[in-house]
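My current task is to audit a protein record that another person submitted. Alongside the sequence sits a line of tokens, each denoting a local backbone shape. Where you disagree with what is written, explain briefly why. This is what I was given:
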Amino acid sequence: MGDVLAFAEQRGGELRGVSNEIVSAAATLAAELGGAAHAVVLGGPGITGAESVGAFGAVRVLVGEHDALDQYVPEVYAEALAAVVRGGDYAAVLFPATAQGKDLAPRVAALLDVPLACDATQVSAADGVVRVVRPVYAGKAFAHLRMEASPALVSLRPNVFLAENVGGTAAVESFAPEVGTPTTRILEFKATAGGSVDVAEASVIVSGGRGMKDPENWHLLEDLRDALGSDAALGASRAVVDAGWRPHAEQVGQTGKTVAPKLYFAVGISGAIQHLAGMRTAQTIVAINKDPDAPIFTVADFGVVGDALEILPRLSEEIRAVTAD
């Protein structure tokens, strides 16, 4: 069979936006394999909106609800999803390379005893074989993989694959997931600030580094983020996070989050390889730095040499003027 299964991630009973990207990629891959795209959603009772992924190419949506799945417990989710994959004869299974997806995908791969291609930026099929392109060596090169095992398990980098609305519909089927006894227990979830966008999923990111000079100057980056709209998020370099200026959840880089937004502002960031590894696949990169020889300019599409503290207020003002028209 050439069917492809997409893991549609939910939070609080509602599908996350990244699920549309994964389903759309699954539909494209399934067409190349001569099959159809299916989606699976796991969670506690009360999942809503599962049918919405039909507009992005899924013809069938499997919804597994159970009290034990109300919170993400790794081994419980992995066992439930592995059971779905075993019963579906799928050629490939796609995951979002989110925090949850990065934890879940390798567990499912281990249970199925198949390889996993992580953080892919391209996925296609030729002669019935799934082919994957993924960054390696901190983004300096790309590995081209042939996934000869079946099913082929691949996690996809968020914001790289277009969520294409094809206007289709999906048949929604509820099923009783296979749930085992967990060996871990979730004690507490700490949510980020209300209304904030996860930097790993944002389409626009404003990141700051030590060039901001003081954490009290961060409001300038917040002003720019607000001027850019509700899809924008704040990011930070490792040096800033290590200094305690910003939370680790905002860190972009090899030891933080890997991002691929449409627009990335690197403000006061020199461009160490650790940081470049996490953002160099952004579609458009704007660098602001007073050092004309800063490495960040080697990957930037647009560069501004100057004091960020002087440039940011004027930039925010100009963007607001344009967006207000």
Observations:
- The chain has a mean pLDDT of 93.
- Residues 47 and 108 are 22 Å apart (CA to CA).
